[in-house]
Q: What sequence folds into this?
């Protein structure tokens, strides 16, 4: 017809997306052909005999080594027990030595302190005057004091008799003096001897009362 409309133009089709993972240069390789199984190895009697001999030799060596190791176990265990006992003894001795060392250190400190105190006492004593024997020798009781006094008096009387006898023997008392005052000298000597004897008897009595050991010269 005269007024026929012209055909509408078609829209362009979208291009298919390019496959970036697939390369156009890749060719599909043919699958490898399945190889047939190789034929079995024929038996080798010499090889089998050699393997058998090696196996027996190794078995014998292993059994011999095992028996040797098993026989060595008891002595080794005994040695281990002895070593453990020795180690325990050493540990005990070390502990005892440690205790002894601590005790010795403590005693050393005490001894050093005692020596230091003794040095101080000695230095102090050197700066003081020496006391008289009467001030140092103090009787604990009245009876003991009487014993001390009688012993001193008895020793003085004995010393006087001894001095008179030595003076007469050495000639310090002349014969004329002895002859002139013979009676007085003899009386004085006898008086000293008598007083000395009484002092000894009193000393012996006091000593017995106090339970003291008497000297042999008093018996």
A:
């Amino acid at each position: 017809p005269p007024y026929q409309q012209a055909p509408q133009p078609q829209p362009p089709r979208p291009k298919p997306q390019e496959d970036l993972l697939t390369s156009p240069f890749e060719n599909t390789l043919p699958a490898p052909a399945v190889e047939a199984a190789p034929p079995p190895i024929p038996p080798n009697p010499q090889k089998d005999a050699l393997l058998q001999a090696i196996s027996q030799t190794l078995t014998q060596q292993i059994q011999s080594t095992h028996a040797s190791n098993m026989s060595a176990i008891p002595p080794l265990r005994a040695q281990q027990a002895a070593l453990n006992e020795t180690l325990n003894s050493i540990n005990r001795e070390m502990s005892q030595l440690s205790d002894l060392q601590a005790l010795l250190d403590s005693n050393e400190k005490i001894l050093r302190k005692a020596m230091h105190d003794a040095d101080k006492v000695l230095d102090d004593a050197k700066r003081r005057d020496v006391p008289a024997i009467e001030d140092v020798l103090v009787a604990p009781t009245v009876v003991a004091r009487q014993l001390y006094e009688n012993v001193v008096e008895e020793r003085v009387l004995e010393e006087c008799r001894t001095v008179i006898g030595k003076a007469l023997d050495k000639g310090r008392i002349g014969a004329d003096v002895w002859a002139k005052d013979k009676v007085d000298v003899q009386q004085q000597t006898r008086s000293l001897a008598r007083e000395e004897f009484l002092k000894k008897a009193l000393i012996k009595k006091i000593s017995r009362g106090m339970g003291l050991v008497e000297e042999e010269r008093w018996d």
